[in-house]
From TrEMBL:
The keyword Membrane does not apply. TPR repeats lie at residues 192-225, 226-259, 260-293, 362-395. This is Tetratricopeptide repeat protein. Keywords: TPR repeat. The keyword Protein biosynthesis does not apply. It comes from Geomonas propionica. InterPro entries: OGT (IPR037919), TPR-like_helical_dom_sf (IPR011990), TPR_rpt (IPR019734).
Amino acid sequence: MGIFDKIFGKDSTQSRAATPVRATTPVRQMTFLTALSMHARGELEPVLAAYAGMVERDPDDLLALFFTAAAKAETGNVEQAVQTLREVSERLAEREESISRAVVVELSNLLVDDSVTVKRPAINEVVVAFGDLLKKEGYIREGAICFEIATGLAPDNAHMLHKLGDALHDLRLYDYAESVLKEALKHAPYHFGALYTYAVLLQDLGRNDEAIAHYEKAAKLVPTHVSCQNNFGAALLRANRVDEALEHCSTALELDPKAPLVKINLGYIYLVKQDFAAAAKSFSGAIELDDQLAPAYFGLASAKQALGADPQTIRELYLKVIEVNPSIAEAHHALANLLASQSDPQALVHYANALQLNSSLPNLRRDYGYACLQQGKRDEALEQLKLAVMLNPDDATARDLLAQVQAT
């Protein structure tokens, strides 16, 4: 027996070998698409019973399992829905199949035979709502499966493609995300969501000029979007277009004066402009709004240092950065430099941490070598300074320090 013509009586445990049901028998007869049409109308209680009957008769009924998960999520049982999706996905993976492709193929086959009972747009509303709910609850991978199904059912729909691309970007599947977002923009060149998400992706990949071009288009379409204005400003700052960056981040702050990330970007813009008092004010304002933002503490430490603040205050700020996010190599490097200037042996620990986190930080090996030299660790100094010169032969300071060590 296939998905169609499954018969459910009052006793859902009735054997398939039971006497065939006649039209006069008081038993409800329902196809999968009939159940799905009810699901699309929000009739969840009878639909869950119908799907359960289908799964009871065929435990591998993929469509019934998938849409059971969707209905459960709608009724608040999100964890059960996710568990069902994962189990089905793992089962299909053992056969080298993907759940999204399998669902699309089975649904498409059904709709070839019956395109009236429930329409594709109605099905996609159910699938996308499921994906949105999963993504909102932090189940991004499972949400992406739903969006992938939606794009399989409507491959030319830019809105569906954007949702999939956005989820893939969140999962850091950058190549796949880029291909999906480019497809969305091919069908709808002025789709704000696709333009904005693609700009963010390009910025993450370091393709700053391309990102700026897409931010510009997106900002013209929706100039009141705070994150777009803010990220546009950040991209412009990275391109050293400081005044333009200030303009867009200032616009973002006007739109949302309580956006801590906007205040952080403004702080870094003021640092570049060497307006250290304004930078410190912006970073402090960000911390007042959210005291768990490591970049705000790092920026505030940099601004305070430039203003000649007490070294202990600066040290505490760098330590706070590391407490909030121990993986920021720049914070370890900056703290190490501060400690080295005070001949504190702990400087070497933070240089080593920075090196482990990001060995390509500018001047890191040179500074580490110099600190080792100051603390009488000649062999360590020699090793770091040799590497510093090898990596940057034009660094005259590193060359001079290396010559000094080799002469001893």
